[in-house]
Amino acid sequence: MLSPFPPTNWSKACALWIHEIHVAFDPPVPVVPGKGGLLRLMRWSTPRVAVLVALSFTLHCTRPPAYLPSPTAGPLGGGSSADGQAYVEEGVASWYGGDGDGFAGRPTASGEIFDPEQYTCAHRTLPLGSFVEVENLDNRKRAVLRVNDRGPFVKGRVLDLSKRGAQDLGFAGQGTTRVRIRSVNAMGLPTALDPAVDRIDPFVVQVAALSDPKNIDSLTRELENTFGPVSLQDTVTRGGLSVKRVRVGSYTSRQEAEQAAEEITKHLKDRGVEPFITRQR
């Protein structure tokens, strides 16, 4: 078949042919969910699902942490933090740092100066520098405090709070209250105690706090002959009396310290002393 255009006009013919071509696109058709195939449905639903996931994540992260004490955390009244459980203890708490008791401005067991307006407390065995959540069992108020001192050295009490801590827990006006203690981290979340502390700051059995040099010497020699090394620690009572705390042993496990305390109590049962467990520092 012969071309209608001369050979010299091929380029012109091609240009005219292309010029006559019109490309038209159909207008977009809205996608109706459930129609148009799986791919269209996924394109329609993906951004909506992403919004729901982001909203759920935001609500979860902004919710305040809530937790309950573990039923297997140490026994109340002297709990341990074995097996990764938080230390839990219940008992009577008192407070110190009030006007006239003489503790404000004095060094604590940790070496820092005691400030009644800080959130600190004294405990016999919890590691210095650790944190505890204290709950007043009478009104359910709570506060997180840092252990920086030793005490209380009064029978039947488990914790001595600063004046500020007692005010926040609502018992500064009554002197004592029943509390629950739980070991936590600096953020207030339950945490186990570090077992390495038992080697760094071992347990001791405090037998008595005496002021008479003769009584101190007599008791020291008697305890050394029966139970081994005895240490003396200088301190001042709330009434301003200088005394020496007479302590026996250096134990890296609480169980050993408890056994020694029982033996010492039996040995001195007629002396009116009540040995208890504390730390070297």
Automatic annotation (TrEMBL):
<dbReference type="InterPro" id="IPR036908">
    <property type="entry name" value="RlpA-like_sf"/>
</dbReference>
<dbReference type="Pfam" id="PF03330">
    <property type="entry name" value="DPBB_1"/>
</dbReference>
<dbReference type="InterPro" id="IPR012997">
    <property type="entry name" value="RplA"/>
</dbReference>
<dbReference type="InterPro" id="IPR036680">
    <property type="entry name" value="SPOR-like_sf"/>
</dbReference>
<feature type="domain" description="SPOR">
    <location>
        <begin position="197"/>
        <end position="280"/>
    </location>
</feature>
<comment type="similarity">
    <text>Belongs to the RlpA family.</text>
</comment>
<dbReference type="InterPro" id="IPR007730">
    <property type="entry name" value="SPOR-like_dom"/>
</dbReference>
<dbReference type="InterPro" id="IPR009009">
    <property type="entry name" value="RlpA-like_DPBB"/>
</dbReference>
<keyword id="KW-0732">Signal</keyword>
<comment type="function">
    <text>Lytic transglycosylase with a strong preference for naked glycan strands that lack stem peptides.</text>
</comment>
<dbReference type="InterPro" id="IPR034718">
    <property type="entry name" value="RlpA"/>
</dbReference>
<keyword id="KW-0961">Cell wall biogenesis/degradation</keyword>
<dbReference type="Pfam" id="PF05036">
    <property type="entry name" value="SPOR"/>
</dbReference>
<keyword id="KW-0456">Lyase</keyword>
<protein>
    <recommendedName>
        <fullName>Probable endolytic peptidoglycan transglycosylase RlpA</fullName>
        <ecNumber>4.2.2.-</ecNumber>
    </recommendedName>
</protein>
